[in-house]
UniProtKB/TrEMBL annotation:
Pfam families named in the record: PGAP1
Stated name of the protein: PGAP1 family protein
GO molecular function: hydrolase activity, acting on ester bonds
Gene3D superfamilies from the UniProt entry: alpha/beta hydrolase
SUPFAM superfamilies: alpha/beta-Hydrolases
GPI inositol-deacylase PGAP1-like alpha/beta domain residues: 209-259
Length: 602
């Protein structure tokens, strides 16, 4: 779960801290009013002391002993930070002492610069005294970063971002990068995931503690619903003052009108596309998360932005991306990722989002969340919702925000003020998605034939012909979460696409727009296989020399009978997945011979 960024490089540069041999310095970790994080010794001399720049009060230092046996009047001492810049070097808060020791609570710095070491000094005498009898160093690293994914996703979306942060920031990268994973429940309602954020924060702080690093807070980057879950924890009664900075990315702070559109049964076109393209239940779901993400849901209006709004506040920044309509102009078939977005790409999204720009899933205003200028960034006007965690401009902005002080102008300190959004369903979207029953408009897929087999790595022609349609949109599934999409302003189309080698059933959907704004449609499917046995010549089915694959076809093979070849079935044990004739034919040598086929079912 964790990736450790070692501090060993600093030992080579700065060496060990200056410590008088007979002094004993102990570093304790503690989080006030947080069960499981009571005061605990995590380090002592002569080891290097390490803290995170999270602004927390998680560290307490205790000094005892004396050099050369000379008693130290601890009741007359104080612990101070050598440099007065509290943002970079922290500060001493409360002090308790006796004749034998001094204890001081240390507030961590909030920012790291190119000299990430703070020096603490033990001074004897009145406040005017400046001569230190002891100095020791504390190494400061960035606050850990939790990377929280959203709906129907998992932590792999952050792999590229994590690697880039480590490469580019080096020693200034977060002390730990934690890719939160709640993929198994990411479709569930918000309430079912309310423990995700506090669980990972506690686990991160505890893991750092075992490595002798004191942290009391984390930074969070939350993509989409991940930002909502972070805010819900921040605003809850269970919040433990353990978030340092909150950065949201494509987060629907005011909900998403697309969730309304996909959730409503009256959105006939959406449901039609959904029904035809779902090959494993992936694309859309009338599940708890979709219900909660609607702009008028109780989860958005009451739980997130109701009476509990901004119960607690932390420095926050919103990263925003937008994406123009995909089908503003004709587009040849091309591969695109994330079927959940592209299945409806090019529909009049401005109607769904009430004229606001969007990333195809969340309106821009909802992503901004009511934050003022400077504390939100529109980093890419051509980036859709999914995939933004890999966007180089997004990663560059995140790097800037990681290093920037939480007290600076890039972070808003007074909470979110999300807009109250509305959803209206416009007639072009509400129009019936006919399956060809209309008498004046029709659309038919002429290629490929239903149930055809296609060789992996080859090409395939998709052809349609329509009557009384002005444009044709083609959508082809080629994996659980990706599609080919295209649009032509024509009543007939013919486009050739490359087929990858993943053996599976693929779905083709075509939508034709009629003069009244409704849609006619057709669908088909084909299979991709890498197990083709083509006939080289005429001969017996059982003869390996008959086949290009060099063996008799088996139950997973597609047997292709090429032009002019006659293949003889001479046994009752011949078998294949399917047989395709390209001008060849089968001949049974007697009535007892058999060929068993294991034909794929639609």
């Amino acid at each position: 779960m964790f990736r450790r960024l070692a501090f060993l490089w600093l030992l080579l540069i700065y060496g060990q801290p200056l410590i008088a041999q007979s002094f004993k310095i102990e570093h304790y970790h503690q989080l006030t009013n947080h069960t499981g994080f009571e005061r605990q010794l995590i380090n002592t001399t002569p080891f290097l002391f390490r803290v995170c720049a999270d602004g927390s009060r998680a560290s307490l230092f205790r000094v005892s002993g004396s050099p050369s046996g000379t008693p130290i009047p601890y009741l007359q001492t104080r612990l101070q930070v050598l440099d007065p810049d509290t943002l970079r070097y922290g500060r001493i808060l409360t002090t308790s002492q006796s004749a034998d020791y001094l204890e001081a609570e240390f507030r961590h710095p909030t920012v790291v610069d190119n000299n990430p070491v703070t020096t603490l000094q033990l001074v004897i005498g009145p406040p005017s005294a400046t001569t230190a009898i002891l100095s020791f160093s504390v190494l400061v690293g960035q606050a850990p970063l939790l990377m929280v994914h959203g709906l129907n996703s998992d932590n792999t979306i952050y792999t590229d971002m994590e690697n880039q942060l480590i490469t580019d920031l080096g020693p200034l990268a977060p002390s730990f990068l934690v890719r939160v994973d709640y993929g198994a429940t990411s479709r569930a309602q918000f309430a079912d995931n309310q423990q995700v954020i506090p669980h990972y924060i506690d686990a991160t702080v505890a893991e750092l503690k075992t490595r002798r690093v004191a942290a009391g807070k984390v930074d969070i980057i939350g993509h989409s619903m991940g930002g909502i879950l972070s805010r819900l924890y921040l605003q809850s009664a269970n919040y433990h003052d353990d978030i340092h900075k909150l950065i949201t990315l494509n987060t629907p702070h005011g909900g998403s009108q697309m969730a309304n559109f996909l959730f409503q049964p009256s959105a006939n076109l959406a449901l039609f596309v959904k029904a035809l393209l779902v090959t494993g239940g992936y694309l859309f779901c009338n599940c708890g998360a979709f219900a909660d993400l609607r702009v008028d849901s109780p989860a958005i209006r009451s739980d997130l932005n109701g009476i509990g709004l901004n119960n607690h506040k932390v420095p926050s920044h919103a990263i925003v991306t937008t994406k123009g309509a995909l089908f503003n102009t004709p587009l040849p078939l091309k591969p695109l990722l994330t079927a959940a977005e592209y299945a409806l790409a090019g529909m009049p999204l401005g109607d769904i989002f009430c004229g606001d720009e969007s990333d195809w899933v969340v309106a821009k205003a909802s992503q901004i969340g009511g934050l003022p200028q400077l504390t939100y960034s529109i980093v890419d006007p051509d980036q859709q919702h999914s995939g933004s965690t890999k966007n180089t401009s997004v990663i560059a902005k995140l790097k800037q925000l990681i290093i920037a002080p939480s007290t600076g102008p890039l972070f808003h300190k007074d909470g979110f003020s999300p807009p109250t959004l509305i959803y209206r369903q416009c007639e072009p979207l509400a129009g019936s998605a006919s399956t060809g029953s209309q008498t004046q408009s029709s659309l038919i897929i002429t290629q490929p034939r239903r149930g055809a087999y296609v060789k992996g790595g080859s090409s395939l022609t998709i052809a349609t012909t329509g009557t009384n349609v002005s444009e044709i949109r083609t959508i082809i599934s080629y994996s659980a979460d990706s599609l080919y999409v295209g649009r032509e302003l024509a009543s007939a189309t013919s486009q050739t696409i490359s087929i990858d080698k993943r053996a599976t059933r693929r779905v083709v959907v075509v939508l034709g727009k009629t003069p009244d704004g409704t849609y006619v449609s057709d669908s088909t499917y084909f299979y991709v296989s890498n197990n083709f046995c083509e006939s080289f010549q005429s001969g017996a089915w059982t003869d390996a020399a008959t086949w290009s694959c060099g063996h008799e076809p088996g139950p997973t093979d597609i047997a292709v009978l090429n032009q002019g070849h006659v293949v003889q079935i001479t046994t009752n044990t011949a078998q294949a997945n399917a047989v395709i004739s390209q001008g060849g034919k089968l001949v049974y040598t007697n009535s007892s011979n058999r060929l068993r086929l294991r034909v794929e079912q639609p």
